[in-house]
Specification:
alpha/beta; five-stranded mixed beta sheet; single chain
Length: 257
């Protein structure tokens, strides 16, 4: 079905309720003839961990917000939920939703795994803005997927803010990334879909030769691949990490701010 905006693909995006990063970064990364529809993941639970798990329990209702819009893929822009429910529950949810919708359902966590695989990386480094308990759950998740965590660097987050991670600056993320020097890892992921990572990755796409991705750059890349009905490709991913196709849009967006 042809639509005016999104002739090369329409992406349904599920974003955590207070996240201020997902839509702007995807708007920069998606090619001009691709478009997105956004739906918010909501939960009244009081703690971060409870809300993240609640997002998974409410996935069917969240996807239902797209109704019969002709989305070609759906992106779940939340990694913390995957860490807490675990790989098996995540895979089961993906299988159920793909069967129900007939389109690829891409979680940010599985997109990162696909990126590591495309890059041929097994020993990985984590740049984490999370509290210690969620960072530990993240490390356990990656290890359950067959990766070895070589180093974890904690990113400094502002405390007096509406949300510590969503209020982070790209400069803080870049400072944390610098802590990966000398780690001996094969690839690095900057965790969380709320931490702004486009500028740090454009400025430093590799540390000691290890490619740098984030949950958002991996999700954007994997979503474009799905909409194009292509296969993940390591060489194309390395060009994507370097900003091929979206560097100019980032510059235009930030110059206009």
């Amino acid at each position: 079905m042809a639509i005016e905006y999104g002739g090369e693909g329409l992406l349904g995006v599920l974003t955590p309720q207070a996240n201020t990063t997902v839509e702007p970064e995807l708007a920069i990364m998606l090619p001009p003839r691709m478009a997105m529809l956004n739906a918010r993941l909501t939960s009244p639970k009081p703690s971060i961990e409870e809300r993240l798990v609640d997002y998974v329990h409410g996935l069917d209702a969240a996807v239902g917000q797209f109704a019969n819009a002709p989305v070609g893929a759906i992106a779940f822009a939340c990694t913390g939920a995957s860490y807490l429910v675990g790989a098996a529950a995540e895979d089961a949810a993906v299988a159920r939703l793909e069967a129900a919708t007939g389109v690829p359902f891409i979680t940010a966590a599985r997109a990162v795994c696909d990126a590591f695989t495309a890059l041929g990386a097994r020993r990985i480094g984590l740049v984490s803005p999370y509290p210690a308990t969620l960072t530990e759950a993240s490390a356990a998740y990656w290890e359950s997927r067959g990766f070895a965590v070589g180093r974890v660097v904690a990113a400094a987050v502002p405390q007096a803010a509406f949300h510590p991670i969503y209020a982070m600056s790209a400069g803080s993320a870049a400072e944390a990334l610098a802590g990966m020097a000398g780690s001996g890892v094969e690839a690095i992921v900057m965790l969380g879909t709320g931490m702004p990572t486009l500028k740090p990755i454009l400025d430093r796409p590799a540390v000691d030769g290890a490619p740098v991705i984030s949950c958002m750059t991996a999700l954007g890349w994997r979503s474009v691949v799905a909409l194009r009905k292509a296969a993940p490709d390591g060489a194309a991913l390395r060009r994507w990490i370097g900003g091929e196709g979206w560097r100019e849009r980032y510059a235009q967006r930030m110059d206009a701010v």
